[in-house]
Amino acid sequence: MQVDAVITWVDGGDANWRAKREYHSGEPHQDFLPFANGEGRYRDNDDLLFLLRSMEQFWGIDGNIFIVTDQQVPGFIAEHPRLRIVDHSQILDARYLPTFSSRAIESALHHIPDLAEHFVSFNDDQMLTRHVQPKDFFSAVGAMVFLTREAIPTSDADLQLSGHNDASNARHWMQKNYGASSIAFIPEHAPKGIRKSWMMELEAAHPDIFDEVRQEKFRRRTGQSILANLYLDWCATHGRADIDWEQCRYLFTDDVENDRVASLLDSLGRHLCICINDTTDDRSDIAKMRDKLDRIRTELFPRPSYFESSRGSASVS
To answer: Is 309 inside any structural domain?
Structure first.
């Protein structure tokens, strides 16, 4: 079967994009999550370049690769028959734009024109570390859901992290609307296998929650992460998902910068993917972090991919 890949990406240093963000940052906002509008959430660390290198090596699946952006095109991207750039305006109504909330953007990925029924949603800070096939993301009953061993917290003090907050919100929504929730642990920050028709079904059944999420400019404490959390619980509760555990190695840029991670080579073949989450937030002194981050990623994927406009150089520009 055809399985497409969908990658959400933003260049937080782009002047036009920053002007839009600055304008909307001045609007009255309530109920923000901590660092919902922090620099680290939008900073372009060349993550996409290394994700695509990992996909060329390990993505043994037929299908297109869609990069979803806000009036931007990655500077290194080459023309490729399987690679397509999708603008937010192609999947979200104009009344929702611009948006700086990944939850709003992800809620509409199933509206990408010509998207296959089965697709895998990637964040750009993820890299594959072993060969993958459709069965890694889709089971006989439907979706594969990757969970951590960390229980979803219940106290407000433990819900300051976005991933904890999103998982808790989805669990409470499922309990309220369906009387049950099948996911009691934090989902992994990993690629997710999605059925387009099932997202359409969920949206048709609950259009209000999709509308509410798409109205976000920035992440709200009470908002829903539909694709990354709610959809997974909805599938599992309806018998449309199988559970697997700890498939992704999850790291922070702090780990890299402070030499708690000297190499990533030991993850090859052991994990489905690696995610290195930018935790520099609003810091401006990131040169040391970037230098070490580039070094360990280049050690892992030294060869430019066919998706890059200038092959033959192993260095990062």
So the answer is: no
* Domain membership flag for residue 221: yes
Domain, as residue range, for 243: 3-300
Cα distance between residue 109 and residue 196, in whole Å:
9
Report the CATH number at residue 110. 3.90.550.10
List all residues 6 or more positions away from 89 whose beta carbon is below 8 Å from its beta carbon.
71, 97
Strand partners, 200: none
Paired sense of beta strands 143-151 and 83-87, if any: unpaired
In a domain, residue 308? The reply is no
Report d(CA 70, CA 11) in Å as an integer: 9
Considering the domain boundaries, does residue 256 fall inside one? yes
The pTM assigned to this predicted structure is 0.94
Residues of the chain above pLDDT 90, percent = 83
What span, in angstroms and rounded, lies between the C-alpha atoms of 14 and 36? Answer: 19
Query: How many Å apart are CA 239 and CA 234, to the nearest integer?
Result: 9
Number of structural domains in the chain:
1
What is the average pLDDT score of the chain? 93
Q: 106 near 227, Cβ under 8 Å?
A: yes
Where do the DSSP E strands lie in the chain?
3-8, 65-69, 83-87, 118-123, 126-128, 143-151, 185-187, 192-195, 241-245, 248-252, 273-277
